[in-house]
Design brief:
By secondary structure, the protein is an all-alpha fold. The protein is about 55% helix and about 0% strand. The radius of gyration is 12 Å and the shape is elongated. It starts with a helix and ends in an 8-residue tail after the last helix.
Length: about 50
């Protein structure tokens, strides 16, 4: 899942679910998945365009 977040940089949990089948059964993993997604997105450096 961490690799998918780094590669695709989803902006919502619904977008993440398009790449990783998470939360499709009982939903117990959803909270942990959201935390992982947030953690990974915080570590990605912000792209800045230099003119």
């Amino acid at each position: 899942m961490r690799q998918a977040v780094r590669q695709f940089q989803p902006q919502s949990f619904q977008q993440l679910r398009k790449f990783v089948p998470v939360g499709n059964q009982c939903g117990k993993c959803v909270r942990a998945a959201r935390e992982i997604m947030q953690d990974e997105l915080m570590q990605i450096p912000e792209y800045k365009e230099i003119a």
